[in-house]
Specification:
The complex is a heterodimer of chains A (237) and B (93).
Chain A: H1 9-17, H2 19-41, H3 51-57, H4 66-74, H5 76-95, H6 109-132, H7 140-156, H8 163-166, H9 168-190, H10 203-227
Chain B: H1 3-25, H2 29-49, H3 53-78
Helix pairs in contact in B: 1-2, 2-3
C-alpha cells in the first residue's frame, strides 16, 4: 500500500486501477526470477570463490571454524562495522524518547513458569554458542541473539532493568563489543601490525575476547531495542 | 540427487514463496507478522539444506525470533493510534 488511503473502500478502487501495474510487476519479477535461476544453474561446478584461500590460511586464524575465521579475523573490520551499525540503530531508537511505561498485564502462570525455566537455559545456550563458535557453527551474533531472547522474555514478564543498571553500566555494556574491538585493533596497530591483524599465537584468545564482549553487547542491544526507548536513568516513580 | 530430498526442497521453496506472498498481501498486520515468523523458520530450514548452519542459527534467532518480537511490539504501539485497519476480531487480549 504505497498510497495513503483513509477509507478502506478506496483500497479496492486503487487495486482495480493498479491491476495493470501489478501484472507488469509480476511479469518483471518472473523474468528476474528466471534470470537468477538461469544464472545459478549455469554456475561452474566448483563455484569460484575465496574458500580455498580461507582453507589454506585457516591455521593462522586461531579458530578452526572457517565462518568464524572469516568474520572475526580475515574480514574482522566487516564485523566491527556491523557492531557499529547495531549501536547506531539503538542510538536512533533512544533519541526518539524515553521507554514508555510498561502496561503489560502481570504474566500468567505459563509465561511466568516458562521464563523461569528458559531464561537461565538461554543464557547457558548463549555461552555454549559463543564457545563452540571457534570450531563449529556458532559465534557472537548467534549467542548474542539467544541472550537477547532471554532479555525479551524477561521484559515480557514485566521485568525492567533496575535504576542502578540503567545508567552508566548499561551504556558500558552496550558499547563494550565495539569498544573492545576498536581497542584491540588500535593496540595491534600501535604494536606495528595492520588493523585487526592478529599475531597467530594470540589470535584464538583475542577472537574469544572480542566475541565475548560482542555477545554481551549484541544481546543487550537487541533486548534494549525491544524495550523501545531510553530507560530512565534516575529513580523510577 | 535423491528423489525424496528434491521433493522436500521444492516443497520448501514453494512454501517459502507462498508464505512470503501471504505475509506481504495480508491486510491483517498481526497475521502478516505471524506469517513472517513462519517464513523465517522455514528459511532457516532452507539454510540448513544449503549447508549453511551458521546462517540458519542467525536466521532462527534474529530473523524469526527477535524481528517477530520487535514487529509485534511495534504493532502493539500502532494500535491505539488507529493506524492499522480494523480487524474482524480482536487479536490482542
Amino acid at each position: 500500500m504505497k498510497k495513503k488511503s483513509n477509507k478502506p473502500k478506496s483500497i479496492t478502487e486503487n487495486g482495480e486501477r493498479e491491476a495493470p501495474f501489478r501484472l507488469l510487476l509480476a511479469v518483471l519479477l518472473s523474468a528476474l526470477a528466471a534470470g537468477l535461476g538461469y544464472a545459478v544453474l549455469s554456475l561452474p561446478s566448483p563455484p569460484p570463490g575465496l574458500s580455498s584461500h580461507v582453507a589454506a590460511n585457516l591455521e593462522t586464524s586461531g579458530v578452526s571454524n572457517p565462518v568464524t575465521a572469516v568474520l572475526l579475523n580475515f574480514r574482522g573490520y566487516d564485523t566491527l562495522l556491523e557492531l557499529g551499525v547495531l549501536l547506531l540503530a539503538l542510538l536512533g531508537v533512544w533519541s526518539l524518547g524515553v521507554a514508555p511505561e510498561h502496561h503489560e498485564p502481570p504474566p500468567g502462570p505459563v509465561l511466568d513458569m516458562l521464563t523461569r525455566l528458559l531464561a537461565p537455559l538461554l543464557i547457558l545456550v548463549a555461552g555454549y554458542l559463543l564457545w563452540v563458535g571457534a570450531h563449529a557453527p556458532g559465534g557472537a551474533f548467534q549467542a548474542g541473539s539467544v541472550l537477547a531472547a532471554a532479555g525479551v522474555l524477561l521484559l515480557l514478564t514485566g521485568w525492567r532493568p533496575g535504576a542502578g543498571f540503567s545508567g552508566l553500566p548499561l551504556r558500558i555494556t552496550l558499547a563494550a563489543g565495539l569498544g573492545v574491538f576498536v581497542v584491540v585493533g588500535v593496540v595491534l596497530m600501535l604494536l606495528g601490525g595492520r588493523l585487526l591483524e592478529y599475531p597467530p599465537s594470540f589470535a584464538g584468545a583475542l577472537i574469544l575476547l572480542i566475541e565475548a564482549a560482542a555477545t554481551l553487547s549484541i544481546g543487550t542491544t537487541l533486548a534494549a531495542l525491544f524495550l523501545g526507548g531510553r530507560p530512565e536513568a534516575g529513580p523510577r516513580r | 540427487m535423491n528423489l525424496l530430498q528434491s521433493a522436500f526442497d521444492s516443497l520448501l521453496g514453494f512454501a517459502l514463496l507462498w508464505l512470503a506472498w501471504r505475509a506481504l498481501a495480508s491486510p491483517d498486520l498481526f497475521r502478516a507478522i505471524v506469517l513472517f515468523v513462519a517464513f523465517g523458520l522455514l528459511m532457516a530450514l532452507a539454510w540448513v539444506r544449503l549447508d549453511a548452519p551458521d546462517i540458519a542459527l542467525a536466521e532462527v534467532a534474529i530473523g524469526a525470533g527477535l524481528t517477530g518480537a520487535l514487529l509485534l511490539g511495534a504493532l502493539a504501539r500502532l494500535k491505539p493510534e488507529g493506524v492499522t485497519k480494523p480487524t474482524h476480531e480482536e487479536k490482542e487480549q
